[in-house]
């Protein structure tokens, strides 16, 4: 419990620091926010009026305090270009990005873990070498390189997955409207529409998971307790899955948490390729329009999500490793 | 109870374990390491063999090699291991699974690392009961409980639900022993079972092993670097040096009629209570030879105060002594006139044939015994 | 301070203790002839053909990028008119223009070479700056420990809490004009925290080794210990990381360019070429696929070369 409180305190400090840094960065940006708010043909008097109205004449720490106070109450300001409330836009777009990241992680684990296990079981074997080749290729193909190739293959040539368009996930409404068939149809259409973008994000992650799990498994397989499990006469499969696998997943899980950051970076690109209205495309288009209030809102939501994921990963260790669970406090 | 594919040709009358000319070589970046280079012995039920040697002598590799527990890659295994008359060296991994745990099992050196840190102790015991004895959960749990109490663990029921890190080193080694005994093996290997433990619990663990070996009428191979550990606990002792058995004898005969200069040196490096305090211990200078390119002659010659030119030129064969079951590898065995003569020659020259400085002992030591 | 060479640093302490009886006997043992180990039993350590092929490709791209202004290729921004048709845009690969032309009738081969100039210079420059600043911070934090370490690592932790591409994006949008220098700065800043962490971890393990302690006890100054003892040992693993770092930086630049946030058009960049070509993917796939392929092979070559060097230098596997 003490560990949990300590971690929670750290979490609050990190969140304050990251939001402040985001605020600071965007306040120091070129192009006065007041110019954008005031619009074309703005006189110096009008501009000063806008500054006072939005509190832009106050010092930055004070402005940050006001912004934070509004933010925790769910008010992230209003977009200067579209006049839509930022919180409202984010609420609409968050599910798309969230689903994309989750979908990509699931595909990455589904590819990475079994291949890591197979590769480690016979390290140096044919599967191991093939998987190493795959890993290098996947790590060398960033989303914007992979996207045109996969789109050409799956959407243009064989036409099994759509290149654009997003079927929103709404099973409950569909269930009410047309029963279970309709609901399953909606889920299937949704998963199909997001498959290519998620796969593009997932391949590099799968490669990282494969390599990490393989390396850790190979070193775990050298451990005395694996020798001992073997000497018990257990099947190689049981030794691998029941004895070696769990102790080999610690760095995999850390990196899975850390790489959510890279996945989010990938969503910026994938959302723009597949015309998905998610957080990433919202931030990118707002940056291009120099509309900084939405950028700040999007940035803060993304960073908070990222920090929370890594907090959850920290907590997950305690579940996976009884040694940590029983330790009184760990720095 | 045994379900091995080799069941039909088993022959218990052929003796329990017969090890013939076992070789284990590792291919490395530097070349081939001859870790075990032709070891033979036999062992019957109820008997204990102590294997003694310093680190790097190949004693741990030998026990793993006999059990077939070495990694598959870059290892060359040779020789034969007859278990109840069947050569198990040719067994594949699948066949070995019927041997491991139920016929032969091993107590590993370090109980801190030989238990799975993320698995409950109960689970680690019962899984082999499920595997080999096809017990159901209730039966396995009861057996695990009985095993834990038989190895002297207090409150065994509570321990079953705990993780290894919650136990002390000595308790963990008792758990390891319980796991090794779970399926009633006929051969138990104990690889330096007390090296990683506190001195205070070493004797307890050794006594436990001895008691279990006796009660279960098992054959036990006790691997150690400490002659003192095996002295009172084994029926016979094999001394290993540079991958070879250099002296093999019934325990009493080994201590009474030591023939191999290396064994003699090992013996004189043991502190003795009957010696006056502050007696200087003899240490064996130098290191064992490089097993990648072993010298042509006797591996111990460079460290031996009796070494003669012949020792460097040809490897000494295993020679039967006049005592029953006592053999050694030396041209100038301790306690013979040849040895005394060689020693005198080296004292006169001030050095052995390999350049080791040799001085006359202040008092007549073990070397002058005749 | 007694003379000691940095190369003996990683292994034994730089002092030679008076040899005891044991070592002197082993010295005499070596008189016994050691037979040569047969060749087939040894495992030789070389960089291997994969490394040389990969390095060859990277070298070729670098060479073409450097020589771009003097090569006999059309300007990357010029509209091609010499194809004998009224419109020379979207030409397929052919003898006149080996990679064809894009929507604006610009020669793709020339744009690839000029785009490589941006990718390579941004990749190398940003990692060079990142290494310089990151290693300095890492060594200072790891060597001096205490408050300095705490503050520096807290800052790096906060920066690491931002998804890297998003942070680079935010930094790039700082400036009105998007020059190569701004892009380099953004990627360098993003690369500093992870490099600093890595170097700090390495420094920590080395400063606790006896040879560093020994020089300190002998009265060497901090600067001297850092330069003579810590730096040579810490930089070796960092070097193998640098090659893979360049690959990561090229990917980052490509991502920014793809989003239209790298160097301003009409300067060609690979990312921008892919993004531009993706619009006509269905009918003229070569416009996007050629830069895709070049980019893939280049990043793959850097990754392979970096991995081989890491293995050759025997650096522990870091997260790829």
Average pLDDT metric of chain C: 78
How much strand content do the residues of chain C show?
under 5%
What is the count of β-strands of chain B? 12
Please state the overall shape of chain B, judged from the principal axes of the Cα atoms. globular
Instruction: Count the beta strands of chain C.
Output: 0
Secondary structural class of chain B: alpha/beta
Helix-residue proportion of chain B: 25-40%
Rg over alpha carbons of chain B: 22 Å
Strands, helices and their partners?
The complex is a heterotrimer of chains A (331), B (370) and C (320).
Chain A: H1 2-27, H2 33-38, H3 44-54, H4 60-72, H5 86-121, H6 126-139, H7 143-157, H8 171-220, H9 224-231, H10 236-244, H11 250-258, H12 260-273, H13 279-288, H14 292-320, H15 322-326
Helix pairs in contact in A: 1-4, 1-14, 5-6, 5-8, 5-12, 6-8, 7-8, 8-11, 8-12, 9-10, 11-14, 12-13, 13-14
Chain B: E1 17-28, E2 31-43, E3 48-52, H1 59-67, E4 75-83, E5 86-87, H2 93-99, E6 104-107, H3 121-133, H4 137-150, H5 156-159, H6 169-181, E7 187-191, H7 199-216, E8 219-224, H8 227-231, E9 236-241, E10 244-250, H9 251-256, H10 261-268, H11 309-313, E11 319-320, E12 327-328, H12 337-349
Parallel strand pairs in B: 3-8, 3-9, 6-7, 7-8
Antiparallel strand pairs in B: 1-2, 1-4, 4-5, 9-10, 10-12, 11-12
Helix pairs in contact in B: 3-4, 4-6, 6-7
Chain C: H1 21-29, H2 48-67, H3 108-144, H4 146-160, H5 164-172, H6 180-207, H7 210-217, H8 222-258, H9 270-277, H10 286-312
Describe the structure.
The complex is a heterotrimer of chains A (331), B (370) and C (320). Chain A has 15 helices and no strands. Chain A has 331 residues and is mostly helical. In chain A, helix 5 (86-121) runs antiparallel to helix 6. With 370 residues, chain B is α/β, with parallel strands linked by helices. In chain B, the strands form 2 sheets. Chain B has an 8-stranded mixed β-sheet with strand order 6-7-8-3-9-10-12-11. A 4-stranded antiparallel β-sheet of chain B has the order 2-1-4-5. In chain B, helix 3 crosses helix 4 and helix 6 packs parallel to helix 7. The longest helix of chain B has 18 residues, at 199-216. The model of chain B is unreliable at 1-6 and 364-370 (pLDDT under 50). In chain C, helix 2 crosses helix 10, helix 3 packs antiparallel against helix 8 and helix 8 (222-258) packs antiparallel against helix 10 (286-312). Residues 1-42 of chain C have low confidence and may be disordered. The chains are: A mainly alpha (331), B alpha/beta (370), C mainly alpha (320). The interface between A and C is large, with 56 and 46 residues.
